[in-house]
Amino acid sequence: MKRNHLLSNAVIxxxxxxxxxxxxxxxxxxxxxxxxxxxxxxxxxxxxxQGLINVGxxxxxxxxxxxxxxxxxxxxxxxxxxxxxxxxxxxVNKSELDLFNPASSGIQxxxxxxxxxxxxxxxxxxxxxxxxxxxxxxxxWNSVPGDLETNGITxxxxxxxxxxxxxxxxxxxxxxxxxxxxxxxxxxxGPGNPRDRWYDSIGGTVNFLPVQPTKDPEAKVSAAYxxxxxxxxxxxxxxxxxxxxxxxxxxxxxxxxxxxVSTFNWPTRANQVFMKVRKAFSAxxxxxxAYWQRNDEYRPNMIPITPIPGITTAGLNxxxxxxxxxxxxxxxxxxxxxxxxxxxxxxxxxxxxxxxQLASNVELSNILWYRHGQILHYxxxxxxxxxxxxxxxxxxxxxxxxxxxxxxxxxHNKLSFGGYAINSTxxxxxxxxxxxxxxxxxxxxxxxxxxxxxxYVSAFIEDHFKPITNLDIVPGVQLVNYKTIFTNNNSSxxxxxxxxxxxxxxNTSKTFVRFAPSLGITYRPVPWLTTYANYATTYQNPxxxxxxxxxxxxxxxxxxKSTDYEVGFRVLRNHWLGLQRIYLDVSYYHDRLANETIxxxxxxxxxxxTFGYGTATLNGVNMALQAxxxxxxxxxxxxxxxxxxxxQYFSTTTNQSYNGYPVTNSPYFTLSSxxxxxxxxxxxxxxxxxxxxxxxxxxxxxxxVGAPTRQTNPGYNLVNLSLSMHTTALxxxxxxxxxxxxxxxxxxxxxxxxxxxxxxxAGGYFNGNSAGAILANPGxxxxxxxxxxxxx
Length: 792
Description:
The protein is built from seven helices and 39 strands. The chain is mainly β. Strand 10 and strand 11 form a beta hairpin. The strands form six sheets. It has a 24-stranded antiparallel β-sheet that branches. A five-stranded mixed β-sheet has the order 1-7-8-5-6. A three-stranded antiparallel β-sheet has the order 2-3-4, with no helix packed on it.
């Protein structure tokens, strides 16, 4: 649609970034990050190899024990770096990504970590939109109402923030590459320190790191097939280093149908392409990257748990079976002639990264980016809304730059300061019509056209000093300035659509300026034990629905405020208790989120959003344990307990308070545990991984009264198995071949039936007598995948 415009913008971004390094002298690159060689960071730090395999393959490598500027943004953190951090942090490395089938992305792999759940209408697939729930805070979309905070986690791609600056959804999970295109994931729980914090990081920051250019030339191709006619194809090629230059190109294609049972397959197709070029200079490194993704999804509808009079498989009050899990089958879905929805998510991202050694004790890091994101949302509700059709096209254009200086001072003191500036224009284009009643996309019955102009500016200073050898103190303060300009274009657009109704909310603007202090501390009483604590107060701009709503008292509107405390300890030790290596991280957290607005859709008019208002406390315990028993056996146990409740909650639907009610749609207990086995036989590495994921009950939101409830969605557990074989036996038959890999995956091995999400409907989804009914998205049944890959 705007591709020529997008390409020109991308070129401008690259040229602007390139002008920063014209005068820099070239130098040989010390190392280069990748999936099969010693990793290098954008800050120029080399890392140590790990995870060597007897057949010659090397897993994705982590970073050196000592922390370098920008590590979180540039490579997968090592256990040593996690051990020394004053933040609550974790990672997903390449071996953990490989536990999941090829249709999964880094989103699904996050579910291994304490306090994180992925939920949605097909949460096991990287091609379906899902929500990340991290200790009660969310990001993403799954059509389930009532989340305390729907945009409270920043999602990054290679250190670049992907979240919308204004939309309530913030970001869509299908923007993240499938696992084959990722090197790993870094995670900060809670706001953390200012250096790595963004505008939506009140609940956490998740950086999805793509594969990187490698030291030596390398290529990899793979093909996979699985349940529901799923197919995944991947190709990756890296040039190796030539005169300081290195580059990588990676792409994949995925196709699958739904596991829901219907006369229609509800297919999804995903395309992803990533490219990166890096140049090493005498004073630093410079890289340019680009990423494009397109996800075309036909999304199945939700299903009532129990039958509702009048809600049938042929529509409202038809002579057909009642539609529910009890009557038409647990996984049943409506025909597309009754209910139809197609979503296309597409993103273009171009960016540069620069790291310079300005002096012996001064380093500069800069990232510059441009992003275009768009959604094509098309829905026809023939069966339950008389042919009501939604044609929705939101898009955004975002430019941003972040610059950080790191200065090494005497007496073990490192001072970091800098900030970011981001400008985004968001356009919403909605047309509602009903062909059976004479309206059309050219002549709609309802329109909503509006724009948002957002400018976010932040500056910070952070000091990392060591008053004594084993004590690190990291105080910091961040100044944020969030500006929003809302423009309602309905009256001017109505000239083109004379038969359409529309809202007349006034144009408005608002700016928030806040200081956000933080403090991190680590103390190591013995070399293998670290205690840590972190405090941060942070702020988030209210989402767009607050500005385009007659209910909102704009003069009284406040930014979301997070007051977060973290305290814990870590153990990292080799050859202890009969184990080769053990890593243990136990932490307690307490987060208070104030000034939250919880969106509620009205059954009488789904295009109108009202709000509940709340302040909530989230506290609990996370524990992560990983142990290498010997060269063959290893194990992990990750668990969490969440106690989330509303200190205050007021529903404008009932004009009642629900203080003390639990926070909804988040599991109150999670446990992921598993064992891994590796052995080496005649040039082959054989592997088997068996793990279990248990999610405790979560509380339902009642959209009928616009408030949380004490009704629960029961807990469930999923047993999973993966088998792999790496071999060099084919090397003599295929020129240039280094390794061949065959893998098999079984998810939900025991075929457990469970509902991934549930909520109480206000009646707008199916109309009729459906108000008060529980609607669900059933989780995936047993699924299988086989994958074959060749590395050259």
